[in-house]
Design brief:
The protein is built from 8 helices and no strands. The protein is mainly alpha-helical. The termini are far apart.
Length: 224
């Protein structure tokens, strides 16, 4: 009798675990579909079949990236647990796993852009990239131009090219935090470049913040 009860309990736990896994997967898919809808809607696609195809391409890309990132993190976690005191071995293993994952991501990145390009214009593809990276490239570029009105065309071009490079990497990152981290890294590169060009970035930033504050205070549409 006791064995029967234990067997039933184990079966109930198994079914519960399965249902929980399905529920989480369904939630993930739903949230993913909502995220992709926000990216695709501004593209102005009127043909339903084309719209559905583009949405599916982007959803599939997110799912593929998630699979790679999850497998990478699991391998690293398991290795660290198995080798808690081998710091050098862990470092080498992590580098190898991240390199392999990076190669996989590079492959699907190329295929993703190729597939999008079959249905969208170059401008629309860029809009998808912006959507996947919270439009940080454009916001940051506008910020640099507002902060430094004296930027030359060559300087603007260099800044924009770095932000585009950051966007290309960030769109494959596993989280919002990681996406922003990549832009932060490239902003550091941009700031170093601008400092070498003669800009005092600390003073320029402080002056810009004062201008923003002054504009907000003098805005007649602002209510107290």
């Amino acid at each position: 009798m006791r064995k029967i009860i234990l067997t039933i309990a184990m079966l109930v736990q198994f079914v519960y675990a399965q249902n929980t896994a399905v529920s989480k997967e369904e939630q993930y898919v739903k949230s993913l579909e909502l995220r992709v809808a926000k990216i695709v809607t501004p593209l102005g696609i009127t043909k339903k079949k084309k719209l559905a195809k583009v949405q599916q391409i982007i959803v599939s890309q997110y799912q593929a990236l998630n699979t790679i990132h999850t497998a990478r993190d699991l391998k690293i976690k398991e290795f660290k647990l198995a080798h808690p005191r081998s710091a050098d071995d862990v470092k080498l293993f992590v580098a190898d796993v991240e390199s392999a994952a990076g190669n996989e991501i590079a492959d699907i990145h190329f295929i993703f852009l190729r597939d999008l390009g079959r249905h969208l214009s170059a401008t629309q593809v860029d809009a998808v990239k912006d959507g996947m990276t919270y439009n940080v490239a454009n916001i940051t570029y506008k910020g640099y131009q507002d902060m430094l009105p004296s930027l030359t065309d060559d300087q603007k071009t260099k800044i924009w090219n770095w932000l585009v490079e950051a966007r290309e990497i960030a769109m494959d990152a596993e989280s919002s935090e990681k996406k922003h981290w990549w832009f932060g890294k490239y902003k550091g590169r941009i700031n170093n470049y601008l400092s070498a060009e003669g800009f005092n970035m600390k003073k320029e930033s402080e002056a810009w913040q004062k201008r923003i504050k002054s504009t907000a205070q003098n805005d007649p549409t602002k209510t107290n």
